[in-house]
Specification:
The complex is a heterodimer.
Chain A lengths: L1 H26 L7 H8 L5 H35 L12 H14 L4 H24 L6 H25 L5 H9 L9 H14 L3 H7 L3 H6 L4 H23 L5 H13 L3 H25 L8 H19 L2
Chain B lengths: L3 E7 L11 E5 L4 E5 L6 H8 L7 E6 L2 E2 L5 H5 L2 E4 L11 H6 L14 H13 L15 H14 L4 E5 L7 H16 L3 E5 L3 H7 L2 E5 L5 E5 H4 L2 H8 L3 E6 L2 E6 L1
Parallel strand pairs in B: 3-8, 3-9, 6-7, 7-8
Antiparallel strand pairs in B: 1-2, 1-4, 4-5, 9-10, 11-12
Helix pairs in contact in B: 4-5
The chains are: A mainly alpha, B alpha/beta.
Chain lengths: ~325, ~250
């Protein structure tokens, strides 16, 4: 089987890339750590300063970045199949808008980081439930209807976000704008993201072939033995959860969810059994590299990581698209 | 071998009240052709028989079990549908497309085996698609895509074929090739039920005919009793000339 034969090398390559991106994130920064020193630190030796830098600062942030990238890319890959639209991304259904309104509100009220994350998560879930409920309507549920409902709700959130920004005092605006562009400066506890990412990935892996069939349309999928509705709702729920956790961890980082699965499809074909795990690895590596650049390019200034993902992603994507058949 | 049965079935056609209930059994070896003008509900009937849309009343049974009580997977292991319309939002090769016909038989963790690959390749060979097997389906012509759909159904090795205009977009040679394939499937014990637009293909290849009138009226029976020029003229609201070629009637619009 042609797909199986190229699965393993591709995943191995991406895994190596992922590990390298994490090592780079640990080594690079205001104080550079050489590879030898880094290996010593990872082995539990080395200087106290390096230990502190790696374990308290860089590792939590790098692991957060990796998990967030993985969450977003996996959510994007799932949404694209669910909506049968290669241009769908995790935010297309308004989840990031709901999260942003929650986060900005709590920033406006001067609440702490934990509350900002909490309200972002609540906002994301609220938006999910809203779109879910409204897309049902009175008739049957279709991807087009879901997409339209999501797009309109997202536009509504956009208006609320602009309203909140105009209400906000000047000194709070930079923080808010950073959040909106995606920012990992405060992402120091990667556990939640990993605890969601790994089980969801394991849960979606056996669904891969069913998703391949679903991509051919609901009627064809039903005729080939797929229980379409339960699968669609399950995928919607999982993708929403992934997005909500990602947005809570790092704000709305753009492009990863759209571009990573798409790039992989252009190179590896459209077998979800390969695309889903590959998206996690590639999305994680991309966001880790982007975040490392974001905090070092103009150091000591930190850029919002979303700017870097867009600057890296857009030309790569356009190049692949231009080259593809 | 499997039997598809409609019991007091009324097909739900949007915008049309009432509807005629009918009961029929499609048995192994039979080749049914559904004839009717545009919008008479041929596709709706086919999808209802496949369990893909709910009936207004009555039920469809597969080997004596109601479709509503069976999982889609159990249905798909016996029954294949060839659709008139296809969606391909994502790129896929011809071989990958044929291989999805094995989906109903594989467990979630299972990959396609060499045997599955052999079946898919055999189906592509049978439809003269072997040379195209690495091409993207989106780059093929309409007739080639139609043959890919039939190859997918053939890979599924169904006991029951429900085909919606299987000869759509096909040139004369491939029309005959596809009908011969379905005929062979019936000889090997499959039941074939297809919507057709071409009266002459129906006359040549079907042993049972179901006529679907625009007002929802419906009648069926052995082909020679159904293919009566007066009835067909009323069915299509079109006068016909009839001649005989090789012992089969040939209908030409007058």
């Amino acid at each position: 089987m042609p797909v199986a034969s190229r699965s393993l090398p591709a995943l191995l390559l991406l895994a190596v890339g992922g590990v390298l991106s994490l090592l780079m994130a640990l080594a690079v920064g205001s104080v550079s750590i050489t590879w030898q020193e880094l290996l010593a630190v990872l082995a539990g030796q080395g200087q106290g300063l390096h230990q502190e830098l790696v374990y308290s600062l860089r590792a939590p942030r790098a692991l957060s970045a990796f998990a967030t990238g993985g969450l977003l890319a996996l959510a994007g890959a799932l949404m694209q199949v669910l909506l049968r639209n290669p241009l769908a991304d995790p935010y297309v259904l308004g989840i990031s808008g709901g999260a942003a309104v929650g986060a900005l509100l709590s920033m406006l009220l001067g609440l702490g980081t934990a509350m900002v994350s909490g309200s972002a998560f609540v906002g994301a879930l609220l938006s999910t439930v809203l779109v879910f409920g409204l897309a049902q309507g009175r008739g049957s549920w279709t991807p087009t209807r879901l997409l339209l409902t999501g797009v309109v709700i997202a536009a509504g959130w956009g208006a609320v976000i602009t309203f909140l920004l105009t209400l906000s005092p000047t000194e709070k605006l930079p923080g808010m704008l950073y959040w909106l562009m995606g920012d990992l400066s405060y992402a120091d506890s990667p556990q939640t993201a990993w605890w969601v990412l790994i089980p969801v990935l394991l849960l979606t892996l056996p669904l891969g072939r069913s998703l391949n069939v679903l991509a051919r349309g609901p009627l064809q999928a039903a005729a080939l033995g797929v229980a379409v509705k339960p699968l669609e709702w399950g995928v919607y729920g999982l993708a929403s959860l992934l997005t909500a956790v990602a947005v809570t961890t790092a704000g709305s980082v753009g492009f990863v969810g759209l571009i990573v699965p798409h790039m992989l499809r252009l190179v590896l074909g459209n077998d979800q059994r390969l695309i889903l795990p590959a998206s996690v690895l590639a999305g994680g590596a991309l966001l880790t590299v982007a975040d490392t650049l974001a905090r070092t390019l103009m150091a000591p200034e930190q850029l919002p990581v979303g700017v870097i993902t867009a600057l890296l992603g857009v030309p790569t994507f356009l190049f692949l698209l231009y080259r593809s058949r | 071998m499997a039997v598809l049965e409609a019991r007091n079935l009324v097909v739900d056609i949007p915008g049309r009240e009432g509807g005629h209930a009918f009961s029929a059994r499609v048995l192994p070896g039979q080749r049914w052709g559904v004839l009717g003008p545009n919008g008479a509900g041929k596709t709706s009937l086919l999808h209802t028989l496949a369990g893909l849309r709910p009936a207004r009343s009555g039920e469809v049974l597969l080997d004596g079990q109601s479709l509503s009580g069976l999982t889609r997977r159990a249905v798909a292991q016996k029954l294949a549908v060839v659709f008139q319309e296809r969606q391909d939002s994502f790129p896929a090769t011809v071989l990958e497309t044929a291989l999805v016909g094995r989906h109903p038989f594989l467990s979630p963790w299972q990959r396609e085996s060499a045997e599955d690959l052999r079946l898919a390749n055999g189906a592509l060979e049978r439809l003269s698609l072997s040379l195209l097997k690495d091409r993207l389906v989106s780059t093929l012509s309409g007739g080639e895509r139609q043959r890919v759909s039939i190859a997918t159904a053939l890979t599924q090795q169904p006991a029951i074929w429900l085909a919606d205009e299987p000869t759509n977009h096909l040139d004369l040679h491939h029309q005959v090739a596809v009908m011969a394939l379905l005929n062979q499937q019936a000889e090997q014990g499959a039941a074939v039920f297809m919507c057709l637009h071409d009266l002459n293909l129906a006359a040549r290849w079907c042993d049972h005919i179901l006529l679907l009138f625009p007002d929802g009226e419906l009648c069926f029976g052995p082909a020679d009793t159904m293919l009566v020029p007066e009835v067909l003229e009323r069915l299509y609201n079109q006068s016909l000339s009839v001649t005989t070629v090789n012992g089969k009637p040939v209908f030409v619009p007058a």
